[in-house]
Design brief:
single chain, about 850 residues, alpha+beta, D-amino Acid Aminotransferase, Chain A, domain 1, 30 helices, about 45% helix, globular
C-alpha cells in the first residue's frame, strides 16, 4: 500500500519521497533542531492524484507544443495543465489521509503553512528552489486540501516547464511533495548565511532581519537589517539598521503586507543575545550538512525556529573564499579597466597581461608628472578577479587633484584629438605585427609581439581613460542638469535626447540590418539561412559549399558581405583577457542577429535614429520658444558637447580590443609549438601557464632542448578557474569601506526574490533570463531573452539586437550597457551586484528599468 503521509522527521523522508525542501526539513528535525511541527504529503500522493484524474495525457499533449524560449507557447501549455489540475477531484482515500494528519496537529485547529517541495530541486547545474507555490496561514481541513492541490498545480507553471525543458528533465519523472507545518506567528524573521557572501569570509555569518513573517524579506519587499556576526563567539561585528517600512502579517484568511509602526521602522529586529542564539543554531546546521548554508529563520519571544536550510548558491558547493587583501592599507575596486575584465582571468593574463598593463599605467603617470609610488596604484588579481588597487592617502589624493586641475584643458578640450592620435599609434603597432609571418617567428619574437601589443592596448586605454571617457560622462551630466532646469513635466528625460548618435554600435547594427534587407530580396537564400544552424551556415561559407538552389553569384556576394562586416566590426574584444576569442572568431553570432531581422524581430536602426533626431529637434524648438539668451545658450552648448562626446566614448571603447585577435594568433602559434613538443595537450592550454613558465618553455624550444610537461598543472589551474567563476567577487574591498556601503545592489540582493539596482533604461519586460559569462555562452542567446551578465563591452552589442532586456552585476548610468540599452529601447537594470549568481539560466524574470528592480519568479 502506498504511503501518502509521513511524519516530518520520518527516516523515509528522502528527496524522491518528499522533495528537496521536505528532505532537508526532515533531516533538521531528526537532528533535534527547532523545526515547526508538521507532516509530509509524499510524491506518491501527487502521482495518485494525477492517475485518478487521468492528467498525464493532458500534460503530455500540452508539452508537445511548448518550446524553450517561446514564452507564449509555454504560457499556453501551463494554462491548459493548471486548469486540468484545479478541476481534478481529490480521491477519497487521499482526502481522508490528509485530514487525519492535519487534525493530528492540535485537533485540526492550527494555522499552517503549506509548502511545495519538488523532486527536481537542487540539481547539480541549477537551482530549482522557489519555483512552486507556498500558502501561509491556512486554516481548516478544506482550506488545506485546496492549498495542497494548488501546490501540485504549481509544478506546471510556465517557468517550471521552461526550466525542465532547458535541463532535459523528463516530465513524467517529476513529482511534487507538500510539507504542511505549524505556522509560527513570527515577531521577526529573516535569512542567515553561514559564510559571508558579501566579503567571502568563512569566519563570519551574515544575517538579514526584519519584522513579521519572513516573506517580506525573501520577496524583497523590505530592506532588512544587515548583521555581521563572528561565527566563533556569536558576537555582532557590525549591525546596519535599515528603514523597515513593510512587514508581512497574518490576517483572518491568509497574509498581507502592512506598514511597520514608525517607532519600530529603524529599531533593531535582532538583539545581541538573539544573534548569538541564532549563530549557535546555524553552526550546528552547517556542521550537519558539512558545507555553507542559506537558512530561513523566525523568532517568537526568545525562541528561534528554522524554516529551511539549503547550500549557499553564491559560491561553488557552498564553499566560500576569503577575500584577503595583499595590502591591508589599500582599497580594491572592480572599476576602471577592471570593468572590461568581468570574469576570473587566465593565469597568463594575470601575469603577462596585468604586468604589461601596469607598466603602461606607470608610464602615463610619469608623463603627467604624477608620483604614485606611495599610492601603489596598479591592477591585481584576488581569487582570479582583476581589481584596481590604490592607497587612498593624502599624497595620492593631492596627486590626483593636481593632475586633474593641470590637465583639464587637455582632458576635455583635446579628448577626441588625443584619442584619434592614440588609435593611429595603436593601429600602426597592430599592422606591424599582423604583416609578419607568424610561422617563421622565433619563440622569443612571438612573446615580444604579445607584450608589445598588450602594452600598446594599455597605453591606448590610459589615453581614453583621461580623455573620451571622462569627457562623455561629464558632458552628459552637465547636459542632464541644464535640461532638468528647462524641461517640462511631459517632456522626455535627458537621456532620450542623446540617442541615435553615429557610434560604432549603431553602424554595426546598420550593417547587419542592411545585409538582412539584401538577403530578403533572395527568398531561397533567406529560407536556407533561417532553417540552417548558424554554425553550419558559417561552415558552408568557409568551405564555399553552395547550398542547393542558390546561385554561385548570390552565395559569393553573401560571403563577401559577411567578411566585410567582420573586417569592419570584428576587430575588438568581448573582454581584455586574451584567453577569450575575438568577435571575428565567432561569426555565427552575426548570423543569429541576421536571423532575428529576417524573422522581423529586430527594430529598424535607421528608424530609431530618425525618431531620435526628430525628438531632439522638437525639444530644441520648444526650448528656443520658451527661453532666450543665456538659458538657450546653455542648452545648445551642453547638448552639442554631449552629442560629440557620447559616440566618441563608444567608438574609443570599441577600439580597445583592436589587437586582441592578433595577440591570440601569436599565442596560439606558440601554444601549438608547445603542444607539439609535449609541454601541453593542446595549443589553447598556453593560457593556463604563467608568464615565467611560457618564457622558460620558449627559451628551451628556441635552444632545441626538451620541454617540461605542464599538462597536469594546466588542468589543475583550469579546474581552479572553474571554481573561481562561481564565486561572487565583491565590487569594492574592504567590504566595510564607505564606498562599499554606497553600492546600489549588494546586501539586499543576497537572498531576496526582488533584486535592486540602478534604473538604466526605462520600461518593463517579463521573459526568460539568459545568464551569459562570455563568448562560449553566446550560442544559447535567443531572440527575446533577457541578457544577464556581469557587465557588457562594445563587442557584446550584437546580443542587444536579440535581447528583450538587460541585467548586470556591475555598471553605472553612463556605462556601455546603459547607453546601448537606451539606444535599443529595451529595459535595463545595472549594478545589482549578484544577478549572475542569483538568477538561474532559463528562469522567468521581470525587469523594471524605470524602478531599477528585477523580480525572480
Amino acid at each position: 500500500m502506498n504511503t501518502y503521509i509521513l511524519p516530518l522527521e520520518d527516516q523515509r523522508a528522502d528527496l524522491q519521497t518528499v522533495g528537496g525542501k521536505g528532505a532537508s526539513l526532515a533531516r533538521l528535525a531528526r537532528a533535534g533542531l527547532p523545526v515547526p511541527g508538521g507532516f509530509h504529503i509524499t510524491t506518491a500522493a501527487y502521482r495518485f492524484f494525477v492517475a485518478s484524474n487521468r492528467l498525464q495525457p493532458v500534460i503530455d499533449s500540452a508539452l508537445l507544443k511548448a518550446e524553450v524560449g517561446q514564452l507564449e507557447q509555454l504560457e499556453q501549455a501551463s494554462t491548459a495543465i493548471l486548469a486540468a489540475f484545479l478541476k481534478g477531484a481529490m480521491p477519497q482515500e487521499l482526502r481522508a489521509a490528509i485530514q487525519k494528519a492535519y487534525e493530528g496537529l492540535q485537533s485540526g485547529q492550527m494555522a499552517v503553512a503549506v509548502r511545495s517541495s519538488a523532486t527536481a530541486e537542487d540539481l547539480p547545474e541549477a537551482s530549482f528552489a522557489g519555483q512552486q507555490d507556498t500558502y501561509l496561514n491556512v486554516n481548516g481541513t478544506q482550506a488545506v486540501l485546496e492549498a495542497v492541490r494548488a501546490c501540485w498545480a504549481s509544478l506546471w507553471t510556465a517557468r517550471a516547464i521552461a526550466y525542465r525543458l532547458n535541463n532535459k528533465v523528463d516530465p513524467q519523472a517529476v513529482a511534487l511533495a507538500v510539507v504542511v507545518q505549524e505556522l509560527i506567528p513570527a515577531e521577526a524573521a529573516g535569512i542567515l548565511f553561514t559564510a559571508n557572501p558579501l566579503s567571502g569570509r568563512t569566519d563570519e555569518m551574515l544575517i538579514n532581519a526584519a519584522w513579521g513573517l519572513g516573506e517580506a524579506v525573501v520577496g524583497g519587499l523590505v530592506s532588512p537589517d544587515c548583521i555581521t556576526v563572528d561565527k566563533v563567539n556569536g558576537k555582532i561585528n557590525k549591525y546596519e539598521r535599515a528603514d523597515k517600512t513593510v512587514m508581512t502579517v497574518r490576517t483572518t484568511s491568509g497574509t498581507q503586507e502592512q506598514a511597520v509602526p514608525r517607532g519600530r521602522r529603524k529599531a533593531r529586529a535582532l538583539s545581541a543575545r538573539g544573534a548569538a542564539q541564532l549563530t549557535e543554531l546555524a553552526v550546528r546546521i552547517e556542521q550537519l550538512y558539512g558545507c555553507g548554508q542559506d537558512i530561513e529563520w523566525c523568532r517568537v519571544g526568545d525562541k528561534f525556529y528554522i524554516l529551511q536550510a539549503r547550500p549557499i548558491t553564491t559560491t561553488i558547493g557552498g564553499e566560500a573564499r576569503d577575500w584577503e587583501l595583499p595590502n591591508p592599507k589599500a582599497s580594491y575596486m572592480r572599476g576602471s579597466l577592471a570593468e572590461h575584465i568581468p570574469n576570473a582571468v587566465s593565469p597568463l593574463f594575470a601575469t603577462l597581461g596585468l604586468r604589461t598593463l601596469n607598466a603602461s599605467t606607470k608610464e602615463l603617470a610619469e608623463k603627467m608628472n604624477m608620483d604614485l609610488s606611495g599610492a601603489r596604484y596598479q591592477y591585481e588579481t584576488l581569487n582570479g578577479y582583476v581589481y584596481m588597487s590604490y592607497e587612498l592617502n593624502a599624497k595620492f589624493t593631492w596627486e590626483m587633484i593636481k593632475v586633474t586641475l593641470s590637465g583639464l584643458k587637455v582632458m576635455y578640450g583635446q579628448a577626441v584629438e588625443r584619442w584619434q592620435d592614440a588609435r593611429q599609434e595603436f593601429a600602426a603597432e597592430i599592422a606591424d605585427w599582423e604583416a609578419r609571418d607568424f610561422t617563421k617567428l622565433a619563440p622569443d619574437e612571438i612573446l615580444e609581439g604579445v607584450r608589445a601589443l598588450m602594452y600598446a592596448a594599455g597605453k591606448y586605454y590610459t589615453v581614453i581613460q583621461s580623455g573620451t571617457l571622462p569627457s562623455a560622462s561629464t558632458s552628459e551630466m552637465i547636459f542632464t542638469r541644464v535640461y532638468k532646469w528647462l524641461k517640462r513635466a511631459d517632456e522626455p528625460e535627458a537621456s532620450a535626447l542623446l540617442l541615435g548618435t553615429d557610434s560604432a554600435a549603431l553602424r554595426a547594427e546598420k550593417s547587419v540590418f542592411d545585409m538582412a534587407k539584401w538577403v530578403k530580396e533572395n527568398p531561397v537564400l533567406s529560407e536556407q539561412i533561417l532553417k540552417t544552424p548558424s554554425q553550419s551556415v558559417i561552415s558552408a561559407l568557409q568551405k564555399d559549399k553552395i547550398p542547393a538552389g542558390i546561385s554561385s553569384e548570390i552565395w559569393k556576394s553573401f560571403r563577401e558581405r559577411i567578411e566585410g562586416h567582420l573586417r569592419a566590426y570584428g576587430a575588438t574584444s568581448f573582454e581584455m583577457d586574451f584567453m577569450n576569442p575575438a568577435p571575428g572568431e565567432m561569426p555565427e553570432l552575426v548570423i543569429e542577429v541576421l536571423k532575428s531581422y529576417l524573422e522581423g524581430k529586430g527594430s529598424d536602426p535607421y528608424q530609431r535614429e530618425g525618431e531620435a533626431r526628430e525628438r531632439r529637434e522638437k525639444i530644441n524648438r520648444a526650448i528656443r520658444e520658451r527661453f532666450h539668451m543665456i538659458p538657450r545658450r546653455w542648452f545648445d552648448k551642453s547638448l552639442k558637447w554631449a552629442l560629440e562626446c557620447n559616440p566618441a566614448r563608444e567608438d574609443s571603447l570599441a577600439d580597445m580590443g583592436m589587437g586582441h585577435a592578433v595577440m591570440r594568433r601569436l599565442l596560439n602559434e606558440l601554444g601549438g609549438r608547445f603542444a607539439a613538443g609535449g609541454a601541453i595537450k593542446q595549443a589553447a592550454d598556453i593560457y593556463w601557464l604563467l608568464e615565467e613558465e611560457v618564457q622558460r618553455q620558449a627559451a628551451a624550444l628556441q635552444a632545441g632542448q626538451p620541454l617540461e610537461n605542464m599538462t597536469e598543472k594546466a588542468q589543475q589551474r583550469k579546474a581552479e578557474w572553474k571554481i573561481q567563476m562561481k564565486l561572487l567577487p565583491p565590487v569594492i574591498l574592504p567590504a566595510t569601506s564607505i564606498f562599499a556601503k554606497m553600492l546600489p545592489g549588494g546586501r539586499g540582493n543576497v537572498a531576496a526574490n526582488v533584486l535592486k539596482g540602478l534604473p538604466a533604461s526605462p520600461g518593463s519586460i517579463r521573459g526568460t533570463a539568459r545568464v551569459l559569462f562570455g563568448p562560449e555562452d553566446f550560442g544559447r542567446m535567443q531572440s527575446g531573452d533577457i541578457l544577464v551578465a556581469v557587465t557588457t563591452t562594445p563587442a557584446w552589442t550584437p546580443l542587444f539586437a536579440l535581447a528583450g532586456g538587460i541585467v548586470t552585476d556591475i555598471g553605472g548610468p553612463l556605462s556601455h550597457s546603459s547607453i546601448v540599452a537606451r539606444e535599443y529601447g529595451i529595459p535595463a537594470v545595472l549594478a545589482t551586484g549578484t544577478a549572475t549568481r542569483r538568477i538561474c539560466d532559463g528562469q522567468t524574470i521581470t525587469v523594471d528599468g524605470s524602478a531599477g528592480s528585477v523580480t525572480l519568479q
